[in-house]
Amino acid sequence: MASVKALAIVAIACVLGEASYAHDWYPAWCCDEHDCRELIEARGETVTETSEGWRLWDGRLIGREHSKMSPDAKFHLCEEPTTRAIICFFAPQGAS
Q1: How many CA atoms lie within 13 A of 10 on its CB side?
Q2: CB–CB of 87/27 below 8 Å?
């Protein structure tokens, strides 16, 4: 029984450790683990490049001057949880 409990604790620690490592590059001035997330196209979270900047699936527009380069070649959005105001947006280099 003790070994099962120990294995469960190790498994949880690995999952939580991986989750924090995956997003540890978010700048502290911009957001934290609660405000930022990777956008998942399979969930309908699409991004289209326009002449004005980046258009999100829900119609919001992020101007080019407000986007930052994503270090992991994925789109990331940081938004205030209640108002959904965009705090930061990260786009992969050369994405369209």
Answers
A1: 6
A2: no
Beta bridge partners of 53: 63
Q: Name the strands in the sheet holding 76-79, side by side, starting at the edge strand that comes first in the sequence.
A: 36-38, 76-79, 86-91, 67-69
Q: What is the pTM of this model?
A: 0.71
CB atoms within 10 A of CB 86: 16
DSSP string for the chain: -HHHHHHHHHHHHHHHHHHHHHTTTS-TTT--TTTEEE--GGGT--EEE-SSEEEETTS-EEEGGGEEE-TTSS-EEEE-TTT--EEEEEE-TT--
Sign, CA torsion 30/35/37/43: negative
- Per the prediction, the chain carries an average pLDDT of 78
